[in-house]
Amino acid sequence: PSLFEKARAQYGERYDKEWGGFAMRPKFPVAPNFSFLLRHHLRTGDAESLAMVEKTLSEIRRGGVYDHIGHGIHRYATDREWLVPHFEKMLYDQALYVIASLEAYQVNGDEAHARNARDVLTYVTRDMTSVTGGFYSAEDADSEGEEGKFYTWKNAEVLEVLGPEDGEFFLKTYRFQEEGNFLDEATHAKNGTNIPHLRADLTDEERTRLEPLRQKLWERRETRVHPQKDDKILTDWNGLMISAYARAAQVLGDKADAVIATKAADFVLSKLATEDGRLLKRYRQGEAGLTAHLEDYAFLIRGLLDLYETTFDVRYFEKAVALQKTLDELFWDEKEGGY
Predict the structure, then answer these.
(1) What is the DSSP string of 27-90?
(2) ω into 26 cis (within 30 of 0)
(3) By C-alpha distance, which of 199, 55, 61, 180 is closest to 120?
(4) Cα–Cα dist 230/126, whole Å
(5) Cα–chain center distance at 107
(6) What is the C-alpha separation between 218 and 224, in angstroms, rounded?
(7) Pairing mode of beta strands 229-230, 138-139
(8) What is the pLDDT of residues 124-166, one digit of tens each?
């Protein structure tokens, strides 16, 4: 038990009480931190463990590190306030953020956490899922040679798309400024573009009004030059994403999420496994290759177990057990212990 308390104390020492997170800058959305603290809260009743998770998840969702137009989270924030992201989007961040949001919802029943999970899964289903069922790896930060160009806005374009009344409401809500609302990383000056972000949670009335406006801006953004997509399908990150969809189906009751998780698992097991039961690392354009690593086995096993607990299809349980046996044979250190 002392190990858990020591870890909890260290999180408390690193916690940013003003903006959430466990660093000053840059800030990464390291979701397994939240999973630990939620379990500590349930085990001990420590209210602060839960409060740190709730605050951090809320600040991430309000900040520019979250994509308010197309959903999903960027890789990290360059500043303390979660405002200016490194605009790359990684599949594993989406998966772990969804899982943390689902767990927070299970602990406190706050609908905002369930909504966060649904929105990120909407992004992954729309933009990061191949027709085969596997999940792509990432989207770049740059387009047209400029980081963040795809995601940032000038006031005039928002007003053009939404009209004066709705446009002004959107600009005010998401804290746009005529001169821009952030400092450019290269020039350290404002450049007239804005990153949508919030300083308070939206009311139900605001959310209802903003949703069709967000949709219009998303449709306009779709006409821009997109960042390049890394269309590799990686076994380990797919395992995490299978977990996220499977657990969303359990917690939120949407059967479509279980279907997506099942299709992805079937794809990985058919295309990224060899006849002798070993895994491969990556798949792209019809070709699978590279010897899998420890995390490929571990995360896929986790995904298969979560999928089994969702669908009760025993095939996934049996495959998880077989993969664990292979993992032990390949990676367990008999002499020193550990993998």
Answers:
(1) B---HHHHHHHHHHHHHH--HHHHHHHHHHHHHHHHSTTB-TTT--B-SEESSTTS-SEE--EE
(2) yes
(3) 61
(4) 15
(5) 19
(6) 10
(7) antiparallel
(8) 999 999 999 999 999 999 999 999 999 999 999 999 999 999 9
